[in-house]
Amino acid sequence: MKPGAALSPIIERIAMLSEPARFRALCVLEREELSVGELSRVLQAPQSTVSRHLKLLAGAGWVRSRTERTATYHRLSLDDLAESDRALWKLLREQVDGRGEVAADARRLAEVLAERQTDSLTFFGRVAGEWDAVRHDLFGDRFTSEALLSLIRPNWVVADVGCGTGNVASLLAPVVERVIAVDQSGPMLEAARQRLAGADNVTFEQGAVEALPIETGSVDAAVCALVLHHVDDVEAACAELSRVLRSDRGGGVALVIDMYAHERAEYRLQMGHRHLGFDPAEVSSLLLAAGFGSTLVRALACGGSARGPGLFAISAWK
What we know:
Rossmann fold, single chain, disordered N terminus, alpha/beta, Arc Repressor Mutant, subunit A
């Protein structure tokens, strides 16, 4: 027997799982049976790449497939694995459960399954499906989100913290008394000014999130959308959100939108991110410590075409 021959089979099995995309695919397929298209959306990878990995996994016996009408579904079933493979898989999977991209994949899987359920209900509820199409043709796809803005009180003053090019401010300006758009970047503020040139109820202030150029207790609501991961001192930023909010008229509310913790280290160089996302529980704790009385975390559905990390929203009330 050649040296190492006895180790060859197990080394080959480990090598098959050493490719991160294949390993992530198996983590997902152990949870749910998926088509190539669905799996590509969960992994945020091209279908051709996912198909290639699935072919290798199927050839090595890790994945089983079945065809239903015109679709082919793939699944990792522990019962179909040899005892040695089952033990190896459990050992490796336990090291990553609930962490990094595996956790992000699980959140995207939930979105894909929710959309599958919606598609199924639309298929079996023909009238409801037709009504959605009719409503879209008559009124477009923006009226619901814009109508929900009417829940905001028209006498509110709202701070758009880290306003960037003014996307949030442009949505808020038509429905509130005043918007204070703040950003540390001069070019970003100038882009926001141009975008909101026709809005006479928006003021622009240059300043850092950790030291907002806004008077204490002067705004009813503060929005901080995809900003905290750019901030060095997140604790100070949360304290500033609390400071500028009113404590009268029923108190103020802050809305923080940001990314779940992820492992895309290239974002630090490509986009100047200081943090690779957050655990929402940690941000909630910082908000509570800053003087907010309660918080509520919601995972945001970003849609199948999204290629970035998952997003969450935290509402925090004074």
